[in-house]
Fold Enoyl-CoA hydratase/isomerase family protein.
Amino acid sequence: MSGMVRCDVESGVAWVRIDNPPRFNAMSRSMWRDLRQVFESLSQQASLVAVVVVGEGGHFCAGGDISEYPSFRFEQAQLRSFHEDEVWGGLQAVLECDIPVIAAIRGNCMGAGVEIASACDVRLATEGAKFGAPIARLGFPMAPREAQLVGRAVGDLTAREMLLCAAVLTATEMKERGFLNRVVPEDDLGHDVERLLKGMSQLSPLAARRNKQTLRALAAGAPMEALLARAYDYASHPEHREGVAAFMEKRPPVFR
């Protein structure tokens, strides 16, 4: 059994579950393909409030499934295809999802786990979570696209410490370095996620999607002129009208 990434939708929230507990939810090749398929499918669902990425059992994701590595890592074309098609295909699908994506992290968040979390918009973790990318111990570097993603999310100094020193950092350290939005006691993670989702359910899906599109384009270096070309075409959108009307009428907006 090589594990799976599966998805359940409940009350407008998609729960994406990294499911490979015998290997601390390490990502197999098929799981990377699952991740891509799940997020490409979710991107078509306009009614969703948010996506929450979690690991089954006590860990988020302990990295890649090393048991598969001898079958493909020692041949250049296969190695390139793994990273550029399978791994980056999954991460890019997360990045291109216009629905807000929350990472709820327990236990080990290593290598592939840090990469998946880096592709999410909001990151919560328990006090006992651990973070790192000690792949230099396995004799290989982080692929360029993945290193760029992680470097932007964790910061250059932390990325260098993880990759060059094989550092494993605590949740508190990662919060101090700007990677995590919140660190909570083990028993509080579920409650904090639910509180966050409750608040997000009152917000405009249009605004969330447009903000994600703008932030993604800015991060990619898109020229401002290209963004301005369609920046205000939401003017007559029903959600825009409802939000302003609700404020004027001193009532909660109803976007859905």
